[in-house]
Amino acid sequence: MRQKTLLLLILLGLSHWATAQDNPSYTQTVRGTVLDLVSQSPLPGASVRILGTDPLIGTATDLEGRFTLVAVPAGRASIQVSFLGYEPSTLREIPITSGKEVVLTIQLEESLEQMETVVVQAGGDSRQAQNEMATVSARGFDMEATQRFAGSRNDPARMAQNFAGVSGANDSRNDIVIRGNSPTGVLWRLEGVDIPNPNHFGAMGTTGGPVSILNSNLLDKSDFITGAFPAAYGNATAGVFDLNLRKGNAYRREHLVQMGFNGLELGTEGPLGGANGASYLLNYRYSTFALMQEIGFSAGTGAAVPYYQDFSMKVDLPTRKMGRFSLFAIGGKSNIDLLGSETDSSTTDLYSELSQNIYNRAKMGVVGLTHRQYYDTQTYGVVTLSADHSFSGNRVDSLSLENREPSPLFRNHFGLNKFRAQYELYRKVDSRNNFRAGMNYDHLQFNLRDSLYQAAEDRFRDLRNASGSSGLFQSHLQWQHRLDQRLSANIGLHYQYFVLNDARQLEPRFGLSFEQNDRNTFSFGYGLHSQLQPIPTYFLESEGPNEQSLQTNKGLDFSKSHHLVAGFRHQFSPDVHLKSEIYYQHVYDVPVEMAPSSFSLLNAGADFGLPNVDSLTNRGRGRNYGLELTLEKQFTEGSYFLATASLFDSQYRGSDGVWRNTAFNSRYVVNGLFGKEWEIGGPNRTFALDIKLTYAGGQYRTPIDLERSILENQAVYQEERAFSVKNPDYFRTDLKAVYRVNKKNLTHEWSLDIQNLTNHQNLFRQTYNPISQSIVNSYQLGIFPIPQYRLTF
């Protein structure tokens, strides 16, 4: 009832704004910089104009490559940029609101064909990756894409689940499964720095969580890569999120107030003073789940209330002679108490355990300082110093079946600090050749302590008790050669060395792209990729002779994977394309048990912890292969669509020599997304609808042995039948409605994102209920409405 009341109030608010009579014509300023794609040098004199305006709104860039377009009408605008000797670019359907100026960074690629005049053609694909060395399995995305798709919750990871080859592990978290790989194989990079898990309630060694710490309101154009990635990326075997934070507005102070699923959010940005264009960007967010549950909304956590807060910032400091400095930081902390003693035994949720009280604490933070120095117009270097901290702690008490009284079971305290020094050199030799080289060293400081209570001895026995330091060194070299206007090759090497156990690996990378004509492009990519095991895995203790403690996993090598990808892209029109890719991945040196078993670390990473298995060896194998299709229309003329289909198989081999399905082998995933935007009485009021349908194969699970579970009063799994039972197929429909109103110098936006609109019951997992002594089905998220309000001014 309270949900219905709140929704009614929202609708009444929309009705009030929709029936307002005043409808003046609002305009906004569009600013930006035009740069060379490779050298990042400014392009003075470039032509910048708004398409379809009468009279023409246009200008030319100044000596610093900067431009300003004033009095651009609110609504949407397409911006065309051209410069002699460069491929022209068109940015399509950029949202223009009265509450916030538009600040753009536009990069043009030098043409190999000598032209006396500029020939303007359709171009400028917002889906093109920022990294020009990424040949296959890569696409770009921006803040608007993260916020547009239904069901994405303003979360880059959930947004990426709409792309071909990608799926979610489950509704409870935002872990992403890329081509059947474990989510632990994903690398998160921010402002050029590898960062720890950027999610609230995230466990060390994992890459996902229920709520993202990353704030979509601060994201700039970023890349997402799903295979055969360039040599600049290391210590990852599945995929890469290469994220950038936008700069604050260096000319006007602007502010943001937002309230929704991710909490109450306050943001501000503006100039820092001086003539060099320095700016700041700050954002703080605090969870509002306690309030939302009071008015009837459920977070899927039963009676438990999640608490979290996070902070993001970027300060940009350009100088006249000393280059450009940038200071950035993100951080967050979270806690939740999942009390089985307060959970209704007749119901289930996505997180709680009936037989346990779980007290979870987590936090992470990253701060970095970047200095970019131009040595000449064709060469620049970037020095980055950064530090990050991650912590996860858990206290778990078991509950008596007789009186539900708690008794100690498990304690966990993991802390990891990383200090990084990094240098990157970029050199554009000419229009055909450019080089990138870099190296970085991570100094790791760890404090790992967890223990399991031994009732017979009335004491805790350490699973890990390690503190100390180690290091990871990485370097890379890349060369891009454009043989002609249509054929280009990328060649690279990546090297990494782990100080702890002397593990080292040299990894070749290669990419080839051939534009047959203006419509058809063929591509190929290969890469050898390796990755550290999660740091806690190395320090798991086992008991040796004379009760001696042994760290049997300390010598583990990197896990490794060969990636082969072939792609084809057909451009039907400037805004509609079809893309297909086939791939094969050979995964080897995966940790498995020394004794024959079905265990493999390939199946870990989509939960709130890692398996505690000792005596591991790098003898495991895996293989992933599949076909991916994407049919997409960019947002033009008020609408977009995205249809993706992924057919794949993902298998692994444990130390028992048996090939099995991996935990993430759903075999097929189909997504369909469509969105339409309408003006209501003029450009000052817009209404948008977005819909998403997902159909996916069920993942495989290990069946529970009911008889043994009853005897031991806990779930006991039939490990000899690991991942042999397929869950029912997954289906979900999400619908999002957005209403935006422009007023003088401010913009209101209301949205309602209804996830799982049909309330379809998707199986999450099977658990053992010790009270009823039965196997119980837990289901994924039911219908879940998420209202949001945003004010920019």
List keywords for this structure.
single chain; 793 residues; mainly beta; Maltoporin, Chain A; five-stranded mixed sheet
Walkthrough of the structure:
Helix content is 6%, strand content 54%. The protein is mostly beta strands. It has a single domain (146-412, 425-792), classed as Beta Barrel (Maltoporin, Chain A). The longest helix is centred in the N-terminal third of the chain and has 17 residues, at 2-18. Residues 116-123 have low confidence and may be disordered.
Layout of helices and strands, plus pairs?
Layout: H1 2-18, E1 27-36, E2 47-50, E3 57-60, E4 66-73, E5 75-82, E6 89-96, E7 102-108, E8 138-141, H2 143-148, H3 156-160, E9 166-168, E10 176-178, E11 186-190, E12 193-194, E13 199-200, E14 211-212, E15 222-225, E16 239-243, E17 254-260, E18 263-271, E19 279-286, H4 289-294, E20 307-318, E21 324-339, E22 356-376, E23 379-399, E24 406-428, E25 433-454, E26 459-482, E27 487-498, E28 503-515, E29 520-531, H5 535-538, E30 542-543, E31 549-550, E32 559-573, E33 576-593, E34 616-636, E35 639-653, E36 659-661, E37 668-679, E38 685-696, E39 700-701, H6 706-712, E40 725-726, E41 730-743, E42 746-755, E43 763-769, E44 774-779, E45 784-792
Parallel strand pairs: 1-7, 11-16
Antiparallel strand pairs: 1-4, 2-3, 2-5, 5-6, 8-15, 9-10, 11-12, 13-14, 15-16, 17-18, 17-45, 18-19, 19-20, 20-21, 21-22, 22-23, 23-24, 24-25, 25-26, 26-27, 27-28, 28-29, 29-32, 30-31, 32-33, 33-34, 34-35, 35-36, 35-37, 37-38, 38-41, 39-40, 41-42, 42-45, 43-44
Organism: Cyclobacterium xiamenense
Protein name: Outer membrane receptor proteins, mostly Fe transport
Subcellular location: Cell outer membrane
